[in-house]
């Protein structure tokens, strides 16, 4: 029995929800589907009531060569229709971007990829030289070396007593196609700087701090049921909304393609999101300049509103 037209006819066009097992005719859906999806499919009621059943899960520990094999194999298989006569896949950046947002905005596609995110450089090593490991390398003491950014003379993070991993020590990111970082601001609304060491492009989207309030309001009005269950949802790094949708609602949005050997910097309280276009390796760290101070105070107040523990003491930094 179709839950929309309440007819039991035309069983060949009946699609069952993989969560609740209720049936729907392909042509009764909005928008209608032309065929049965190859992957799992969930009805809108189940999607709306998913609560915390979305986001990221811890995966297996992999070696870099093993992850590379998985990443390249997935991309080759996904875009196999674009392969040349030798079987090599060459996909333009705009084609991958278009496919990414098609998947994000489709309620009928379910895709899982892996992302080596938030890996501690203190454990796995940095892509930049360090004075301890390479004392003769001229870049070991360079200001653009992310191991040195947080301790530069004008960085206020030098006054933070605790050595905060991810903020003061760089974190590493090993991506594959469609691996995603959702809309978020940095901890304490600090600056961030990201370097793509090698590999495929990383695509970024950004919203200036001047439109942060407008963005947050739009997110809450667009998915009120999610925010009712999780008022601090924007801290979870699990929400995406397309730049096209944001621009239609007058939220300023910019983008860039970060290729190998390029830096991307985000500014205080600038929401940003993005995805990787293939196998790549990046590194990121935070910094705080004097113009960050009012943003930092505002962030601590927001943390208090949602009972979120700060990463470091803002008051101690000022003292």
TrEMBL record:
Which BP terms does GO give this entry?
Answer: regulation of DNA-templated transcription
JmjC domain boundaries = 138-304
| Entry's Gene Ontology cellular component terms | chromatin; nucleus
What GO molecular-function term can you cite, just one? Answer: zinc ion binding
Return the InterPro entries for the record. JmjC_dom, KDM5_C-hel, Zinc_finger_PHD-type_CS, Znf_FYVE_PHD, Znf_PHD, Znf_PHD-finger, Znf_RING/FYVE/PHD
* Domain PHD-type positions: 1-49
- Subcellular localization(s) per the UniProt record: Nucleus
UniProt entry keywords in alphabetical sequence:
Iron, Metal-binding, Nucleus, Zinc, Zinc-finger
Any idea what this protein is called? JmjC-domain-containing protein
**Organism name:** Caulochytrium protostelioides
